[in-house]
Amino acid sequence: MTPVFAHGNLRLYLLSLLAESPRHGYELIQALSERFGGTYSPSAGTIYPRLSKLEAEGLVTKTSDGRKTVYEITDAGRAELAARESELGAIEDEVTDSVRRLADEVRAGVNEAMRSLRADLASAAREAKRGRPADREHTSDVHPTPRQDSNAAVRDAEVVLNDFRQQMRTDLRSRAARGGLQDAVVAQLRHELAQVRANVLGTLK
Amino acid sequence: MTPVFAHGNLRLYLLSLLAESPRHGYELIQALSERFGGTYSPSAGTIYPRLSKLEAEGLVTKTSDGRKTVYEITDAGRAELAARESELGAIEDEVTDSVRRLADEVRAGVNEAMRSLRADLASAAREAKRGRPADREHTSDVHPTPRQDSNAAVRDAEVVLNDFRQQMRTDLRSRAARGGLQDAVVAQLRHELAQVRANVLGTLK
DNA sequence: GGCTAACTCGCGATATATCGTGTTCCTGGA
DNA sequence: TCCAGGAACACGATATATCGCGAGTTAGCC
Predict the structure, then answer these.
(1) Nearest to A193 among B93, B185, B196 (CB)
(2) Which residues contact A43 (CB under 8 A, 6 or more apart)?
(3) How many CB pairs under 8 A join A and B?
(4) Which of B39, B76, B118, B156 is in Cβ range 3.0-4.6 Å of A37 for a Cys bridge?
(5) Higher-confidence residue: A165 or A134?
(6) What is the pLDDT of residues B71-115, one digit of tens each?
(7) How would you list the strands of the sheet with B68-73, edge to edge?
(8) Are B96 and B27 in the same domain?
(9) In a domain, A155, yes or no
(10) How far is A182 from chain B (nearest CA, A)?
Protein backbone atom coordinates (compact mmCIF):
# COMPACT_ATOMS: atom_id res chain seq x y z
CA MET A 1 0.00 0.00 0.00
CA THR A 2 1.42 3.32 -1.08
CA PRO A 3 1.71 5.64 1.90
CA VAL A 4 -0.16 8.93 1.73
CA PHE A 5 2.69 10.86 3.27
CA ALA A 6 6.07 10.37 1.74
CA HIS A 7 9.15 9.87 3.87
CA GLY A 8 9.49 12.69 6.38
CA ASN A 9 6.47 14.64 5.27
CA LEU A 10 4.16 13.68 8.06
CA ARG A 11 6.71 14.90 10.55
CA LEU A 12 6.70 18.34 9.02
CA TYR A 13 2.97 18.44 8.61
CA LEU A 14 2.36 17.57 12.25
CA LEU A 15 4.70 20.37 13.20
CA SER A 16 2.68 22.79 11.10
CA LEU A 17 -0.53 21.69 12.77
CA LEU A 18 0.97 22.15 16.22
CA ALA A 19 2.21 25.59 15.18
CA GLU A 20 -1.43 26.63 14.81
CA SER A 21 -2.28 25.52 18.32
CA PRO A 22 -1.34 22.88 20.88
CA ARG A 23 -3.31 19.70 20.43
CA HIS A 24 -3.47 16.18 21.74
CA GLY A 25 -2.89 13.12 19.59
CA TYR A 26 -6.45 12.34 18.77
CA GLU A 27 -7.14 15.92 17.80
CA LEU A 28 -4.28 15.75 15.33
CA ILE A 29 -5.81 12.66 13.75
CA GLN A 30 -9.10 14.51 13.44
CA ALA A 31 -7.46 17.65 12.10
CA LEU A 32 -5.69 15.65 9.41
CA SER A 33 -8.86 13.83 8.53
CA GLU A 34 -10.73 17.11 8.26
CA ARG A 35 -8.13 18.75 6.07
CA PHE A 36 -8.37 16.01 3.52
CA GLY A 37 -12.13 15.78 3.38
CA GLY A 38 -12.44 12.83 5.71
CA THR A 39 -10.79 10.64 3.13
CA TYR A 40 -7.51 10.17 4.90
CA SER A 41 -7.57 9.22 8.56
CA PRO A 42 -4.10 8.49 9.82
CA SER A 43 -4.09 5.66 12.31
CA ALA A 44 -2.94 6.09 15.87
CA GLY A 45 0.02 3.90 14.97
CA THR A 46 1.10 6.59 12.55
CA ILE A 47 0.67 9.61 14.81
CA TYR A 48 1.89 8.60 18.23
CA PRO A 49 5.31 7.23 17.32
CA ARG A 50 5.91 10.42 15.32
CA LEU A 51 4.93 12.60 18.24
CA SER A 52 7.24 10.65 20.53
CA LYS A 53 10.04 11.17 18.07
CA LEU A 54 9.37 14.88 17.78
CA GLU A 55 9.44 15.10 21.54
CA ALA A 56 12.72 13.22 21.71
CA GLU A 57 14.13 15.72 19.20
CA GLY A 58 12.95 18.60 21.36
CA LEU A 59 10.66 20.06 18.71
CA VAL A 60 7.51 19.60 20.80
CA THR A 61 6.71 19.18 24.48
CA LYS A 62 4.32 16.68 25.98
CA THR A 63 1.97 17.61 28.85
CA SER A 64 -0.26 15.01 30.40
CA ASP A 65 -3.72 16.34 31.19
CA GLY A 66 -5.99 13.69 32.63
CA ARG A 67 -6.94 11.29 29.90
CA LYS A 68 -5.38 13.50 27.28
CA THR A 69 -1.79 14.30 26.38
CA VAL A 70 -1.31 17.76 24.97
CA TYR A 71 1.55 18.41 22.58
CA GLU A 72 2.95 21.90 22.10
CA ILE A 73 5.50 23.16 19.62
CA THR A 74 8.79 24.53 20.99
CA ASP A 75 10.99 27.32 19.66
CA ALA A 76 13.24 24.72 18.11
CA GLY A 77 10.16 23.28 16.43
CA ARG A 78 9.13 26.66 15.10
CA ALA A 79 12.64 27.19 13.77
CA GLU A 80 12.60 23.87 11.97
CA LEU A 81 9.20 24.69 10.52
CA ALA A 82 10.28 28.16 9.35
CA ALA A 83 13.33 26.67 7.65
CA ARG A 84 11.19 24.31 5.62
CA GLU A 85 8.02 26.27 5.15
CA SER A 86 8.36 26.24 1.41
CA GLU A 87 7.85 22.47 1.38
CA LEU A 88 4.44 22.60 3.00
CA GLY A 89 2.40 23.60 -0.03
CA ALA A 90 3.90 20.83 -2.11
CA ILE A 91 3.18 18.32 0.62
CA GLU A 92 -0.46 19.28 0.81
CA ASP A 93 -0.87 18.91 -2.93
CA GLU A 94 0.87 15.55 -2.90
CA VAL A 95 -1.31 14.26 -0.10
CA THR A 96 -4.46 15.43 -1.85
CA ASP A 97 -3.41 13.51 -4.93
CA SER A 98 -2.62 10.32 -3.02
CA VAL A 99 -5.88 10.52 -1.20
CA ARG A 100 -7.85 10.99 -4.37
CA ARG A 101 -6.23 7.95 -5.88
CA LEU A 102 -6.99 5.94 -2.76
CA ALA A 103 -10.62 6.97 -2.85
CA ASP A 104 -10.92 5.90 -6.45
CA GLU A 105 -9.49 2.50 -5.62
CA VAL A 106 -11.93 2.03 -2.79
CA ARG A 107 -14.83 3.04 -4.97
CA ALA A 108 -13.87 0.53 -7.62
CA GLY A 109 -13.08 -2.08 -5.01
CA VAL A 110 -15.20 -5.14 -4.57
CA ASN A 111 -14.43 -5.28 -0.88
CA GLU A 112 -17.89 -4.61 0.44
CA ALA A 113 -19.69 -6.77 -2.04
CA MET A 114 -19.02 -10.09 -0.36
CA ARG A 115 -20.04 -9.21 3.13
CA SER A 116 -23.49 -10.64 3.30
CA LEU A 117 -22.28 -13.68 1.44
CA ARG A 118 -19.64 -14.26 4.06
CA ALA A 119 -22.21 -13.88 6.80
CA ASP A 120 -24.21 -16.64 5.17
CA LEU A 121 -21.18 -18.88 4.92
CA ALA A 122 -20.31 -18.37 8.54
CA SER A 123 -23.83 -19.19 9.61
CA ALA A 124 -23.95 -22.26 7.39
CA ALA A 125 -20.71 -23.51 8.89
CA ARG A 126 -22.04 -22.97 12.36
CA GLU A 127 -25.28 -24.76 11.63
CA ALA A 128 -23.43 -27.67 10.14
CA LYS A 129 -21.29 -27.97 13.21
CA ARG A 130 -24.32 -27.81 15.44
CA GLY A 131 -25.67 -30.86 13.65
CA ARG A 132 -28.50 -29.05 11.95
CA PRO A 133 -29.14 -29.57 8.29
CA ALA A 134 -26.74 -27.18 6.70
CA ASP A 135 -28.27 -25.04 4.08
CA ARG A 136 -25.57 -24.65 1.57
CA GLU A 137 -27.56 -22.61 -0.82
CA HIS A 138 -24.95 -19.97 -1.48
CA THR A 139 -21.75 -21.85 -1.03
CA SER A 140 -21.58 -22.75 -4.68
CA ASP A 141 -21.89 -19.15 -5.71
CA VAL A 142 -18.38 -18.24 -6.65
CA HIS A 143 -19.26 -14.88 -8.08
CA PRO A 144 -19.16 -11.91 -5.79
CA THR A 145 -22.36 -10.73 -7.39
CA PRO A 146 -24.96 -10.99 -4.67
CA ARG A 147 -27.73 -13.50 -5.06
CA GLN A 148 -30.26 -11.08 -3.75
CA ASP A 149 -32.08 -10.78 -7.04
CA SER A 150 -32.61 -14.45 -7.54
CA ASN A 151 -33.43 -14.88 -3.88
CA ALA A 152 -35.49 -11.85 -3.13
CA ALA A 153 -38.34 -14.08 -2.06
CA VAL A 154 -36.17 -15.97 0.41
CA ARG A 155 -34.98 -12.75 1.85
CA ASP A 156 -38.51 -11.46 2.21
CA ALA A 157 -39.50 -14.67 3.90
CA GLU A 158 -36.67 -14.30 6.35
CA VAL A 159 -37.75 -10.82 7.23
CA VAL A 160 -41.29 -12.03 7.72
CA LEU A 161 -40.12 -14.85 9.98
CA ASN A 162 -37.86 -12.62 11.95
CA ASP A 163 -40.40 -9.89 12.43
CA PHE A 164 -42.95 -12.39 13.54
CA ARG A 165 -40.60 -13.82 16.09
CA GLN A 166 -39.67 -10.41 17.41
CA GLN A 167 -43.31 -9.44 17.81
CA MET A 168 -44.38 -12.65 19.47
CA ARG A 169 -41.48 -12.37 21.83
CA THR A 170 -42.43 -8.88 22.82
CA ASP A 171 -46.04 -9.90 23.24
CA LEU A 172 -45.25 -12.90 25.39
CA ARG A 173 -42.68 -11.15 27.45
CA SER A 174 -44.84 -8.20 28.34
CA ARG A 175 -47.56 -10.66 29.20
CA ALA A 176 -45.23 -12.65 31.42
CA ALA A 177 -44.13 -9.47 33.13
CA ARG A 178 -47.60 -8.59 34.33
CA GLY A 179 -49.30 -11.76 35.30
CA GLY A 180 -48.11 -15.19 34.33
CA LEU A 181 -47.66 -16.80 31.00
CA GLN A 182 -49.48 -20.09 31.02
CA ASP A 183 -47.95 -23.18 29.54
CA ALA A 184 -51.16 -23.64 27.63
CA VAL A 185 -50.41 -20.54 25.60
CA VAL A 186 -47.02 -21.88 24.67
CA ALA A 187 -48.61 -25.17 23.70
CA GLN A 188 -51.13 -23.33 21.57
CA LEU A 189 -48.35 -21.40 19.87
CA ARG A 190 -46.44 -24.57 19.17
CA HIS A 191 -49.48 -26.22 17.69
CA GLU A 192 -50.47 -23.29 15.50
CA LEU A 193 -46.97 -22.88 14.16
CA ALA A 194 -46.81 -26.56 13.27
CA GLN A 195 -50.05 -26.03 11.39
CA VAL A 196 -48.65 -23.06 9.51
CA ARG A 197 -45.63 -25.05 8.49
CA ALA A 198 -47.78 -27.91 7.26
CA ASN A 199 -49.88 -25.49 5.24
CA VAL A 200 -46.91 -23.83 3.62
CA LEU A 201 -45.29 -27.16 2.87
CA GLY A 202 -48.53 -28.23 1.27
CA THR A 203 -48.54 -25.21 -0.99
CA LEU A 204 -44.95 -25.87 -1.99
CA LYS A 205 -45.85 -29.33 -3.19
CA MET B 1 -28.39 2.17 13.99
CA THR B 2 -29.93 -1.03 15.25
CA PRO B 3 -27.48 -2.87 17.48
CA VAL B 4 -26.31 -6.26 16.32
CA PHE B 5 -26.60 -7.76 19.77
CA ALA B 6 -29.87 -7.16 21.57
CA HIS B 7 -30.03 -6.16 25.20
CA GLY B 8 -27.98 -8.56 27.29
CA ASN B 9 -27.03 -10.90 24.49
CA LEU B 10 -23.45 -9.83 24.09
CA ARG B 11 -22.85 -10.55 27.74
CA LEU B 12 -23.94 -14.15 27.33
CA TYR B 13 -22.07 -14.60 24.11
CA LEU B 14 -18.83 -13.36 25.58
CA LEU B 15 -19.27 -15.82 28.40
CA SER B 16 -19.68 -18.64 25.89
CA LEU B 17 -16.48 -17.60 24.11
CA LEU B 18 -14.56 -17.51 27.37
CA ALA B 19 -15.93 -20.93 28.26
CA GLU B 20 -14.05 -22.29 25.25
CA SER B 21 -10.78 -20.85 26.44
CA PRO B 22 -9.36 -17.85 28.29
CA ARG B 23 -8.73 -14.93 26.01
CA HIS B 24 -7.77 -11.29 26.14
CA GLY B 25 -10.04 -8.50 24.94
CA TYR B 26 -8.63 -8.12 21.50
CA GLU B 27 -8.84 -11.85 20.90
CA LEU B 28 -12.52 -11.73 21.75
CA ILE B 29 -13.07 -9.02 19.17
CA GLN B 30 -11.30 -11.16 16.59
CA ALA B 31 -13.19 -14.29 17.60
CA LEU B 32 -16.52 -12.50 17.20
CA SER B 33 -15.48 -11.10 13.88
CA GLU B 34 -14.43 -14.53 12.70
CA ARG B 35 -17.65 -16.21 13.77
CA PHE B 36 -19.74 -13.86 11.72
CA GLY B 37 -17.65 -13.99 8.60
CA GLY B 38 -15.77 -10.78 9.25
CA THR B 39 -18.97 -8.87 8.79
CA TYR B 40 -19.45 -7.85 12.38
CA SER B 41 -16.49 -6.46 14.26
CA PRO B 42 -17.48 -5.25 17.70
CA SER B 43 -15.61 -2.15 18.74
CA ALA B 44 -13.37 -2.04 21.77
CA GLY B 45 -15.92 0.25 23.36
CA THR B 46 -18.38 -2.61 23.19
CA ILE B 47 -16.15 -5.35 24.56
CA TYR B 48 -14.16 -3.82 27.39
CA PRO B 49 -17.00 -2.32 29.41
CA ARG B 50 -18.82 -5.64 29.20
CA LEU B 51 -15.74 -7.52 30.39
CA SER B 52 -15.36 -5.11 33.30
CA LYS B 53 -18.97 -5.70 34.20
CA LEU B 54 -18.59 -9.45 34.03
CA GLU B 55 -15.58 -9.19 36.27
CA ALA B 56 -17.48 -7.06 38.78
CA GLU B 57 -20.20 -9.71 38.79
CA GLY B 58 -17.61 -12.38 39.48
CA LEU B 59 -18.32 -14.33 36.31
CA VAL B 60 -14.82 -13.86 34.90
CA THR B 61 -11.39 -13.05 36.31
CA LYS B 62 -8.89 -10.60 34.92
CA THR B 63 -5.15 -11.36 34.83
CA SER B 64 -2.72 -8.78 33.57
CA ASP B 65 0.02 -10.26 31.43
CA GLY B 66 2.37 -7.65 30.06
CA ARG B 67 0.60 -5.68 27.37
CA LYS B 68 -2.30 -8.10 27.43
CA THR B 69 -5.08 -8.73 29.92
CA VAL B 70 -6.34 -12.28 29.97
CA TYR B 71 -9.93 -12.98 30.98
CA GLU B 72 -10.96 -16.35 32.31
CA ILE B 73 -14.41 -17.69 33.13
CA THR B 74 -15.17 -18.60 36.74
CA ASP B 75 -17.37 -21.35 38.13
CA ALA B 76 -20.10 -18.80 38.68
CA GLY B 77 -19.75 -17.82 35.04
CA ARG B 78 -19.99 -21.41 33.93
CA ALA B 79 -23.12 -21.83 36.04
CA GLU B 80 -24.75 -18.78 34.50
CA LEU B 81 -23.86 -20.05 31.07
CA ALA B 82 -25.24 -23.52 31.73
CA ALA B 83 -28.51 -22.04 32.99
CA ARG B 84 -29.04 -20.16 29.76
CA GLU B 85 -27.43 -22.39 27.21
CA SER B 86 -30.68 -22.78 25.29
CA GLU B 87 -30.61 -19.13 24.34
CA LEU B 88 -27.29 -19.26 22.56
CA GLY B 89 -28.52 -20.74 19.33
CA ALA B 90 -31.20 -18.11 19.01
CA ILE B 91 -28.67 -15.38 19.65
CA GLU B 92 -26.38 -16.63 16.91
CA ASP B 93 -29.22 -16.64 14.42
CA GLU B 94 -30.33 -13.19 15.41
CA VAL B 95 -26.85 -11.80 15.04
CA THR B 96 -26.45 -13.42 11.65
CA ASP B 97 -29.68 -11.79 10.54
CA SER B 98 -28.77 -8.37 11.85
CA VAL B 99 -25.42 -8.57 10.21
CA ARG B 100 -26.88 -9.61 6.92
CA ARG B 101 -29.25 -6.70 6.94
CA LEU B 102 -26.43 -4.35 7.83
CA ALA B 103 -24.37 -5.69 4.96
CA ASP B 104 -27.22 -5.12 2.55
CA GLU B 105 -27.54 -1.56 3.70
CA VAL B 106 -23.86 -0.92 3.22
CA ARG B 107 -23.95 -2.46 -0.20
CA ALA B 108 -26.78 -0.19 -1.25
CA GLY B 109 -25.20 2.77 0.49
CA VAL B 110 -23.79 5.74 -1.32
CA ASN B 111 -21.31 6.40 1.44
CA GLU B 112 -18.13 5.81 -0.47
CA ALA B 113 -19.24 7.60 -3.58
CA MET B 114 -18.53 11.12 -2.36
CA ARG B 115 -15.09 10.61 -0.96
CA SER B 116 -12.86 11.80 -3.70
CA LEU B 117 -15.26 14.65 -4.29
CA ARG B 118 -14.87 15.74 -0.70
CA ALA B 119 -11.11 15.55 -1.02
CA ASP B 120 -11.33 17.94 -3.95
CA LEU B 121 -13.52 20.34 -2.03
CA ALA B 122 -11.19 20.34 0.92
CA SER B 123 -8.21 21.07 -1.25
CA ALA B 124 -10.05 23.85 -3.06
CA ALA B 125 -10.97 25.44 0.24
CA ARG B 126 -7.40 25.21 1.38
CA GLU B 127 -6.08 26.80 -1.74
CA ALA B 128 -8.59 29.61 -1.48
CA LYS B 129 -7.54 30.29 2.07
CA ARG B 130 -3.91 30.21 1.16
CA GLY B 131 -4.70 33.33 -0.83
CA ARG B 132 -4.23 31.90 -4.29
CA PRO B 133 -3.71 28.38 -5.26
CA ALA B 134 -32.78 -8.02 18.05
CA ASP B 135 -34.70 -8.21 20.23
CA ARG B 136 -34.52 -8.71 23.93
CA GLU B 137 -33.13 -11.88 25.32
CA HIS B 138 -32.08 -10.43 28.58
CA THR B 139 -33.19 -11.72 31.86
CA SER B 140 -30.19 -12.81 33.76
CA ASP B 141 -29.76 -9.74 35.76
CA VAL B 142 -26.86 -8.38 37.53
CA HIS B 143 -28.40 -9.29 40.80
CA PRO B 144 -28.79 -13.02 41.20
CA THR B 145 -32.51 -12.89 41.84
CA PRO B 146 -33.95 -16.32 41.21
CA ARG B 147 -37.27 -16.01 39.45
CA GLN B 148 -36.95 -18.79 36.97
CA ASP B 149 -40.56 -19.77 37.39
CA SER B 150 -42.21 -16.97 35.51
CA ASN B 151 -39.46 -17.18 32.94
CA ALA B 152 -39.66 -20.85 32.19
CA ALA B 153 -42.68 -20.40 29.96
CA VAL B 154 -41.03 -17.51 28.15
CA ARG B 155 -37.96 -19.62 27.54
CA ASP B 156 -40.07 -22.41 26.17
CA ALA B 157 -41.85 -19.98 23.90
CA GLU B 158 -38.57 -18.71 22.65
CA VAL B 159 -37.36 -22.16 21.82
CA VAL B 160 -40.62 -22.86 20.01
CA LEU B 161 -40.34 -19.66 18.01
CA ASN B 162 -36.75 -20.29 17.16
CA ASP B 163 -37.26 -23.86 16.08
CA PHE B 164 -40.12 -22.85 13.89
CA ARG B 165 -38.12 -20.14 12.28
CA GLN B 166 -35.19 -22.44 11.72
CA GLN B 167 -37.35 -25.09 10.09
CA MET B 168 -39.26 -22.73 7.87
CA ARG B 169 -36.04 -21.18 6.78
CA THR B 170 -34.59 -24.51 5.79
CA ASP B 171 -37.79 -25.49 4.03
CA LEU B 172 -37.99 -22.30 2.04
CA ARG B 173 -34.34 -22.17 1.15
CA SER B 174 -34.14 -25.69 -0.10
CA ARG B 175 -37.26 -25.00 -2.11
CA ALA B 176 -35.74 -21.85 -3.57
CA ALA B 177 -32.61 -23.81 -4.46
CA ARG B 178 -34.48 -26.27 -6.66
CA GLY B 179 -37.04 -24.25 -8.50
CA GLY B 180 -38.29 -20.87 -7.58
CA LEU B 181 -39.94 -19.62 -4.46
CA GLN B 182 -43.04 -17.72 -5.44
CA ASP B 183 -43.95 -14.47 -3.82
CA ALA B 184 -47.38 -15.92 -3.20
CA VAL B 185 -45.88 -18.39 -0.73
CA VAL B 186 -44.24 -15.60 1.20
CA ALA B 187 -47.50 -13.71 1.22
CA GLN B 188 -49.26 -16.78 2.52
CA LEU B 189 -46.69 -17.19 5.25
CA ARG B 190 -47.04 -13.58 6.26
CA HIS B 191 -50.79 -13.88 6.39
CA GLU B 192 -50.85 -17.08 8.40
CA LEU B 193 -48.35 -15.81 10.91
CA ALA B 194 -50.40 -12.66 11.41
CA GLN B 195 -53.34 -14.95 12.08
CA VAL B 196 -51.37 -16.95 14.63
CA ARG B 197 -50.36 -13.82 16.41
CA ALA B 198 -53.95 -12.59 16.51
CA ASN B 199 -55.08 -15.93 17.91
CA VAL B 200 -52.46 -15.98 20.64
CA LEU B 201 -53.15 -12.39 21.54
CA GLY B 202 -56.81 -13.30 21.79
CA THR B 203 -56.03 -16.11 24.20
CA LEU B 204 -53.91 -13.82 26.31
CA LYS B 205 -56.82 -11.47 26.78
C1' DG C 1 -52.74 -2.55 37.09
C1' DG C 2 -50.33 1.49 35.07
C1' DC C 3 -46.74 4.72 34.83
C1' DT C 4 -42.38 6.62 35.02
C1' DA C 5 -37.90 7.38 36.99
C1' DA C 6 -33.82 4.91 37.34
C1' DC C 7 -30.96 1.70 35.63
C1' DT C 8 -28.73 -1.39 32.04
C1' DC C 9 -26.88 -2.20 27.70
C1' DG C 10 -24.80 -2.00 22.92
C1' DC C 11 -21.96 0.77 20.52
C1' DG C 12 -19.48 4.49 18.06
C1' DA C 13 -16.40 8.05 19.33
C1' DT C 14 -12.70 9.43 22.05
C1' DA C 15 -7.98 8.56 23.74
C1' DT C 16 -3.32 6.39 23.95
C1' DA C 17 0.47 3.33 23.04
C1' DT C 18 3.43 -0.52 20.88
C1' DC C 19 4.89 -3.91 17.24
C1' DG C 20 6.09 -5.69 12.74
C1' DT C 21 6.48 -4.95 7.79
C1' DG C 22 7.83 -2.90 3.75
C1' DT C 23 9.89 1.18 1.85
C1' DT C 24 12.85 5.13 1.51
C1' DC C 25 16.87 7.65 2.75
C1' DC C 26 21.52 8.40 4.08
C1' DT C 27 26.22 7.41 5.20
C1' DG C 28 30.62 5.30 5.09
C1' DG C 29 33.67 2.25 2.85
C1' DA C 30 35.23 0.09 -1.68
C1' DT D 1 31.47 7.47 -7.41
C1' DC D 2 28.69 3.84 -6.30
C1' DC D 3 26.32 0.90 -3.49
C1' DA D 4 25.46 -1.92 0.74
C1' DG D 5 23.75 -1.89 5.22
C1' DG D 6 21.43 0.33 8.62
C1' DA D 7 18.57 4.02 10.35
C1' DA D 8 14.33 6.47 9.76
C1' DC D 9 9.78 6.42 8.36
C1' DA D 10 4.60 5.57 7.25
C1' DC D 11 1.26 2.58 8.41
C1' DG D 12 -1.89 -1.28 9.54
C1' DA D 13 -2.44 -4.44 13.24
C1' DT D 14 -2.37 -5.24 17.98
C1' DA D 15 -3.85 -3.81 22.61
C1' DT D 16 -6.59 -1.35 26.21
C1' DA D 17 -9.75 1.84 28.35
C1' DT D 18 -13.46 5.61 29.05
C1' DC D 19 -17.52 8.61 27.66
C1' DG D 20 -22.04 9.66 26.16
C1' DC D 21 -26.13 8.69 23.36
C1' DG D 22 -30.14 6.26 22.34
C1' DA D 23 -32.88 2.35 23.17
C1' DG D 24 -34.44 -1.29 26.21
C1' DT D 25 -35.71 -3.09 30.96
C1' DT D 26 -36.99 -2.98 35.70
C1' DA D 27 -38.49 -1.52 40.18
C1' DG D 28 -41.28 1.05 42.85
C1' DC D 29 -44.80 4.19 43.69
C1' DC D 30 -49.54 5.33 43.20
Answers:
(1) B196
(2) A29
(3) 238
(4) B118
(5) A165
(6) 999 999 999 999 888 888 888 888 887 887 777 665 554 444 445
(7) B23-24, B68-73, B60-65
(8) yes
(9) no
(10) 7
